[in-house]
Fold this protein.
Amino acid sequence: MSADSVSEAELHAWVDGRLEPARRAAVEVYLAAHPAERQRLVDYQSIDAELHRLFDPALDEPLPDTLRLPPARRPVRPLMWLGRAAVAAGFVLFGGVLGWFAHQRAGDALAAERAFVRQALAAHVVYIPEVRHPVEVDASQQQHLVAWLSKRLGKPIQAPVLESLGFQLLGGRLLPADGQPAAQFMYQDAGGRRLTLYARQGLPDNRDTAFRFAEQDGVEAFYWVDGDLAYALIGDLGWPMLDRAAHAVYQQLNP
Amino acid sequence: MSDFGRLVTEQIPRLRRYARALIGAQRADDLVQDCLERAWSRQHLWDGQGDLRAWLFTILHNLYVNGVRRQASAPPFESLPEQEPPALQPSRHEAGLELRDLQRSLEQLSAEHREVVLLVGLEQLDYTEAAAVLNVPLGTVMSRLARAREALRRTLQEPPRARLRRVK
């Protein structure tokens, strides 16, 4: 038994009660000879005990309605937890002028996201009922369509393939959005259900790739920001299916 | 409710405890809610056999990491030092550590260190589970754990008055 060659990992395993009996005995021999080390490990255990004292009460609290399953559909909620918390923290910590500026900044980002989602939803609702002219350039000219939209957006864009989910590309169109160009691709499945992918530049202060969910009048959208482009995937497919489609799109755009 | 829903619901209190320790009570429920939504929409990816708790913690970890990345590029007000005094916690004084300051010391850790200390010390995941949740090798878990625990211990050993004086 080599009490002298006790590793740091084993010392932590001793703290956590995860050592085999033989190694535990070896560690204890070592600790008996090194009281300062023993004190260090006991300190670690006190820290763990304090963590439990601080946070275990959360285990016994009744759950709020927001934490029930299945999850409730949420209305447009463009800032995820961190962003909203930042707005709240701005008020709580600094109040007054600083808080107000903080709120303005977060408010601007929020307004830009809301505008983006509104435009994407509006374009979806306007064009999906079209029977004769659902798209401006159809999928038979896909190469031209993609090159044209990339040029107009000023950023390379692709038309993701969603055939594994049963959706075929119908084509796409160019749209105006606050004086900027936006692109819309439209897809359709065998049952005639339609899905649109909307993209444009210009969402500020936001470089994460978290998906957000928005809903308006029964039409659902997942949207996210990826580099210079913001995307929204919209359809009336039910949330799980739309989520799968959004992940498929994201993965193809980020191979 | 489905089996899946029932099994996930059983884990919600632990997800909440972890989220509170990780980002504070004010924001924890939003993070857990996002985690539940994502888990719900991906239930087809859970095979029904594996460790559901580790799977849920993995989802929560990924959401948290995305959030931290977002915070790194967020407006400057978030990076200003916190001015509020920490809430006073009744505390035992053990082994010479100022455990009263634990919550604040925890906030001073990097996200990576905070996660590993909480997964192992509070959630009592074993090291292999923690490595799977964090998607890092076992050796990385052990070295982060060692650094994080030592960083906490050192912060808690400093007499609080000395820290206050340093600010003046």
Q: What stands out?
A: Helices of chain A lie at 8-15, 21-33, 35-55, 57-60, 81-94, 96-127, 142-153, 239-253. Chain A is about 45% helix and 20% strand. Residues 75-104 of chain A have pLDDT under 50 and may be disordered.
